[in-house]
Amino acid sequence: AQSVTQLDSQVPVFEEAPVELRCNYSSSVSVYLFWYVQYPNQGLQLLLKYLSGSTLVKGINGFEAEFNKSQTSFHLRKPSVHISDTAEYFCALNSGGYQKVTFGIGTKLQVIP
Amino acid sequence: DVKVTQSSRYLVKRTGEKVFLECVQDMDHENMFWYRQDPGLGLRLIYFSYDVKMKEKGDIPEGYSVSREKKERFSLILESASTNQTSMYLCASSLKGGFGGYTFGSGTRLTVV
Q1: What is the pLDDT of residues A69-94, one digit of tens each?
Q2: So where are chain B's domains?
Q3: A102 class by beta-carbon count within 10 Å (0-12 exposed, 13-18 middle, 19+ buried)
Q4: Are A44 and B40 in contact (CB < 8 Å)?
């Protein structure tokens, strides 16, 4: 069985400050990991993905994430957030070649002016 | 611009009605998925399809059915709508294997009264 845990349901942060959204996963086989962003009343958009290779993955809008196998984590980071980054962020996992993806319950990022 | 299109953004239906939610993708993706999204519960998989005319149950299939007569179209059917099916419904598609991640539609917010 595979699972994804997003440790924070809400993260408030001041504009231009750095942010880290935490994600831990559980899987007995190799994994593919994703971060998605959802703006209000919209669908989810792929931010970045880890399939293999370099453990530091860069995505759109200045976000990056680091795959840590020993810690079973895939935390999302941005060095300086903008008001437009206010959204909900979902960590997701695909393991064992299954075509289904398991999603975390989401973290709401609120950027404060 | 490749995309997944859901036929309605907002829908209001009466209890007991049969409801059809349509989803069309133009990326020639093999896989298509229906999720519902509720506050605090994240995304829950209702049904998915790996190919035309095939379907598999997800985590919460009760009260729903699906149809995939053509590769690009995946329909979700609420056989007899109930108030507990009021939710945001998200359609997604992906390439075979799912390694590229999902492409989501904008969602349909369904209210059953």
Answers
A1: 999 999 999 999 999 999 999 999 98
A2: 4-98+105-112
A3: buried
A4: no
